[in-house]
Design a protein that fits this description.
Radius of gyration: 16 Å
Helix content: 25-40%
Number of domains: 1
Strand order of the largest sheet: 1-2-3-4-5-6-7-8
CATH superfamily: FMN-linked oxidoreductases
Structural class: alpha/beta
Order of helices and strands: EHEHEEHEHHEHEHEHH
Number of helices: 9
Length: 230
Amino acid sequence: MLAEMEQWRHVFKLDPERELSDEHLEQICLSGTDAIMVGGSSGVTYENTVDLMSRIRRYTVPCILEVSTDEALVPGFDYYFIPVVLNTDRGEWMTGRQQQALRDFGSMLDWSQIAAEGYVILNEDSTAAKLTGAKAPDSLKDLLAYARMADKLFRLPIFYVEYSGIYGNMEWVRRAKDVLEHTRLFYGGGIDSPEKALEAARSAHTIVVGNALYENLPQALATVAAVRSL
């Protein structure tokens, strides 16, 4: 596991396809968040990823590329997170695309910068779920099985519980975190206020705030202080 990542409690996620002014980006990068993640479910290209990375690089905040497509695998990030969707039966989202990326770029990668994310997507109406064919767990027992799979079977550094646009069941998130011994639980989805950020941060190891940055920036920025208060 990347040692620095073990200390992260709060991450902002930026979508290369969405517009963001330099003024707003400055506020985000100087907010005190632990890291900036760059990624999206659609419309991510080499060009818009390079552009966003170069703008973030004006600041000292750690910068991560979540590699959703190998066409947008851009050098120059601090870290690279490789998503592996655990709750789909489409092999391309578990090993297929990952194998293709490693075939083309594996010899050039610095493995000290790379971490795999075991995703479980719980909002079947989201773009990410429709794209990957993810089926939401029917019960808490199913979610805990995925958590144990990430932690015990595959030894993944990150177990990412993704509600993608809606605020999730924090009791489920907390219970999933409690079964993890080696893996860090990231939670993303619907965090659009300090109150939700505080509740989510009590349930997960690390929270990810994304859409709120484009919908209500002051509230999104306030989530940093909320998490820092723990």
